[in-house]
Amino acid sequence: MARIITLTTDFGLRDPYQGAMKGAILSINPEARLIDITHLIAPGNILEGAFVMLESCGFFPRGAIHLGVIDPGVGGERRPVLIETEDYIFVGPDNGLFSLVAAQEKVRRVIHLTKKEYFRSEVSSTFHGRDIFGPVAAHLSLGADPGTFGEEVGSFNEAALPLPKKSGRAIRGEVVYIDSFGNLITNISKADAVNLSSLIEAEVNGITIKGLKKTYCDVKKGSLVMLISSSGLLEVAVSSGKASARLKAKVGDKVLLRPSKR
Amino acid sequence: MARIITLTTDFGLRDPYQGAMKGAILSINPEARLIDITHLIAPGNILEGAFVMLESCGFFPRGAIHLGVIDPGVGGERRPVLIETEDYIFVGPDNGLFSLVAAQEKVRRVIHLTKKEYFRSEVSSTFHGRDIFGPVAAHLSLGADPGTFGEEVGSFNEAALPLPKKSGRAIRGEVVYIDSFGNLITNISKADAVNLSSLIEAEVNGITIKGLKKTYCDVKKGSLVMLISSSGLLEVAVSSGKASARLKAKVGDKVLLRPSKR
Amino acid sequence: MARIITLTTDFGLRDPYQGAMKGAILSINPEARLIDITHLIAPGNILEGAFVMLESCGFFPRGAIHLGVIDPGVGGERRPVLIETEDYIFVGPDNGLFSLVAAQEKVRRVIHLTKKEYFRSEVSSTFHGRDIFGPVAAHLSLGADPGTFGEEVGSFNEAALPLPKKSGRAIRGEVVYIDSFGNLITNISKADAVNLSSLIEAEVNGITIKGLKKTYCDVKKGSLVMLISSSGLLEVAVSSGKASARLKAKVGDKVLLRPSKR
Coil, strand, or helix at residue A69? Predict the structure, then answer.
């Protein structure tokens, strides 16, 4: 069956690991359609993986299987799980990786993966992507029922994004992701920003950016610009430049959004 | 329909953007065959994107749809277009990105993409790859006629490569692309080089390279070598080394090709 | 025919080369299923390519065609070959690239690729991935018999990994690969390690790591740990860190494994 399996990992693109995992999947279902989301999540950075899955998985058609393997605790106590939602099945370690994307979905069942007959015959201690998660995704892509793979459990690990806080007439948020264009994505939503005032300004690392624009082109090349990102979050960018370098910003830096003084 | 859609973007490989675009395409045509050309064009570098499309798109079978999104003016005044040629359909922003590759093809129609019913229901101001170009490519891959997506317009943006100039018995060209092996690709064609003389030499940043060779192995390891690139352009390389580092060369550096003094 | 062709090259991910090769394959067999293993082998590093193919190709289903192009001698004297084994067909330059992976397989035939009718009509001197190896892989994926492409030859280039040496009660090996997590993979096998003693220690660049663990989680975050890698080789890692940086290690560095003093 030519079902879609998306791949989000921190395996990198030069090592044999993602190739081996693809092979393990295709040796169970040679017709599975593998779609790379990314293999360049920073090693072991679960929050970054969760954010990337949040911003990409939901655009896929119903029935897609989303395999996510950012798994610094591989071989340790975190549970291997699958999360069945109304639209998708997520497969990977239960360490918070699916917390953001599954919060957008209607969750039906969470299954603790324990049935070894669906794993590779030898399971290594360090590579469950190839030995457990890939094979389970492959069997799911052949139509296996999620309940086949283990017992239902009540919940999954929810390690959500930090939430922004109201502070008088202002909102205190933070940078939650910096993309490779150097754009700063914050945890302040479009609704937060629009409710605040029609004239707002943001302060990041001592620099103030005035006014909410619609596109990067609404300011001169090289100027700072504040807008709503394609994913609906407040974003600070530099038109044709890198806001991360200009503002010396990193993930976790505070963002203060407030009505503009004028 | 399992039609081929190639992808050339500057979205990078660690962000959710190319995954989201793939999802948007597959949610319209789950059977589309997505082939990554690259997502690592330098951010906003239209000429680099144009060169990479020139050197790769033409090798695909007839009927392929080539999606190109290097779009620093997203949300601004550049037109979203599709260009139908005898062999292919190109989809993306009309900012010069298709100028080189379409110049190699018999152009049939250029369509300004205006029919919103083929876009995603909400079009962001900053991500037309996911919201306009991907969906249009997906509908094309299902067999939609190019005329469906908007009005025909007379022309597309042609921002061609700089042309080399004759100068006495010499040719003055420049470096137009540096690949990741550090090879310098120039805008001087095989015909230019061969017409000049059977014994030629090139000067780049004050260094002279004598004689046109056939392969990297025709000189000692570590030596400079001049040859015709796989795409038919004059190339300066170092056998098993990096010409870009050796010659401190960058895109735009002048290359003087002349009959050899002896 | 929707046969799997895997791709392992040093073409990089930003240049047009891997896209052009994919196009050349698909223009012969539009239904071939292209699976990227990696395009980021260090330029010209045959041993690295051989190691990555060893650790990934064998996980694919029988019948897969493995295309490998790390080809610093392109256009020179190395032979273009295909190696048919019981499970797979390998296609690429005969420069040692297939030495490790083919040693794991039952080799049936080695064919010197000479029949030009299966190459691209114009073969460049510098890009046989696009002009020879890709097209041959494409014809194989359509079901062509390996014998079609040239004469059988007796052997292929075997440039194996360095072997570890016994030295009294110790084993002297070396680092053969460093992955992007900074883990050091050695040429010492699980059997070597286990035969030595139940209590072993490794010395790398003057630092001693005591005891063989099962997972990265068996030591504190930030500690050095020695374990058996997912591919069955002795590995030195830092839990949630980079052993390569901690030990200032590079490929070729010596690893001394010995019974623990206590």
Answer: strand
| Minimal Cβ distance to C23: which of B2, B40, B60 | B60
Which distant-in-sequence residues (6+ apart) come within 8 Å of C41 by Cβ?
A14, C8, C9, C10, C48, C49, C52, C70
Instruction: Tokens 């998708």: give the residue.
Output: A88
Burial class of residue B109, CB neighbours in 10 A (0-12, 13-18, 19+) = middle
Q: Identify the H or E element spanning B244.
A: helix B243-246
- Whole-angstrom Cα distance, residue C96 to residue C99? 5
Among chain A residues, CA nearest to C55: A16
Name residues whose C-beta falls within 8 Å of residue C114's C-beta, 6 or more positions apart in sequence: C149, C150, C151
Instruction: Answer for the pair B22, A35: CB distance below 8 angstroms, yes or no.
Output: yes
Give the residue carrying structure tokens 């929707």. Answer: C2
The closest of C83, A163, C59, B105 to C68, measured between CA atoms, is: C83
Name every chain A residue with its beta carbon within 8 A of the beta carbon of C8.
19
Contact A204, A253 (CB under 8 A): yes
Query: Is the Cβ pair B126, A229 closer than 8 Å?
Result: yes
Tell me how crowded residue A44 is: count the other CB atoms within 10 A of its CB.
Answer: 20
Pair of tokens at residue B255: 């290359």
Provide the residue type at A149 as one letter. Answer: F
Listed residue (B18, B154, B260) closest to A8, CA to CA: B18
For residue A43, give the 3-state DSSP assignment: coil
Taking residue A260's Cβ as centre, other Cβ atoms within 10 Å add up to 15
Q: Residue type for B60, please? A: F
Interchain pair B215, C27: CB under 8 A: no
Alpha-carbon distance of A119 to A28, in angstroms, equals 10
Q: For residues C1 and C29, is the Cβ–Cβ distance under 8 A?
A: yes
A16–C61 CB contact, under 8 Å: no
Most A CBs within 10 A among C10, C56, C221, C226, hence the mutation to make, goes to: C56
Burial class (CB in 10 A: 0-12, 13-18, 19+), C198: exposed
Q: Compute the distance between CA of residue B63 and CA of residue A223 in angstroms, rounded to an integer.
A: 42
Give the strand order in the sheet containing A152-153.
A33-38, A4-9, A65-69, A89-93, A80-85, A107-112, A152-153
Residue C17: is it exposed, middle or buried by C-beta count within 10 angstroms (0-12/13-18/19+)?
Answer: buried
Residues of B with CB under 8 A from a CB of A: 11-24, 26-27, 30-31, 34, 36, 43-44, 72-77, 124-127, 130-131
C185 neighbors C226 (Cβ within 8 angstroms):
no
Q: Which residue in the set C52, C54, C230 is minimally distant from A124, CB to CB?
A: C230
Q: What residue has token string 């675009």?
A: B21
Asked if the Cβ–Cβ distance from C181 to A43 is below 8 Å, we say yes
One pLDDT digit (tens) per residue for chain C, 262 residues: 789 999 999 999 999 999 999 999 999 999 999 999 999 999 999 989 999 999 999 999 999 999 999 998 888 889 999 999 999 999 999 999 999 898 889 999 999 999 999 999 888 888 999 999 999 999 999 999 999 999 999 899 987 678 899 888 899 999 999 998 899 999 998 888 888 777 899 999 999 999 999 888 899 999 999 999 887 889 999 998 999 999 999 999 999 999 987 5
Helix, strand or coil, per DSSP, at residue A70: coil
What is this structure's pTM? Answer: 0.91
- CB contact at 8 A, B62 and B31: no
Count CA atoms closer than 13 A to C257's CA, side-chain side. Answer: 31
Position of tokens 């994926």? C141
